[in-house]
Write a structure and sequence with these properties.
The protein is an alpha+beta fold and 101 residues long. The chain has helices spanning 14-29, 47-60, 74-78; strands at residues 2-8, 33-36, 39-43, 66-72.
């Protein structure tokens, strides 16, 4: 399964910029990779792990702005069509980084 996280946070004041940076760093520490600006993705093992991760994200969410989470299967994620632009080769977006304990 894959978690897609979309967020739109205000960045007009210095406090809002700090909150934005803190949330973005939190996502990276949780293992998310950036697909586009303000769109992050993380590979998870199953639905239970996805729910636990969503609960942790909910606790770390800023009070202002918009944060949305979408859970999809790997088959659905593999059907993404690239319309304009180029695919990044340096981003590792498969399950080779997944460690099963």
């Amino acid at each position: 399964m894959r978690i897609l996280l979309f967020f739109d946070l205000p960045v007009e004041t210095t406090v809002e910029k700090r909150v934005y940076r803190h949330f973005r760093k939190y996502l990276i520490q949780e293992g998310f990779i950036m697909l586009q600006q303000s769109v992050y993705s993380k590979l998870v093992l199953n639905g239970t792990t996805a729910n636990l991760l969503k609960n942790r994200i909910k606790k770390a969410c800023p009070t202002k702005g918009l944060v949305q989470v979408l859970t999809i299967t790997e088959k659905q994620y593999a059907n993404i069509d690239l319309m304009v632009g180029f695919q990044q080769d340096k981003v590792l977006d498969d399950d080779s980084r997944l460690t099963i304990i």
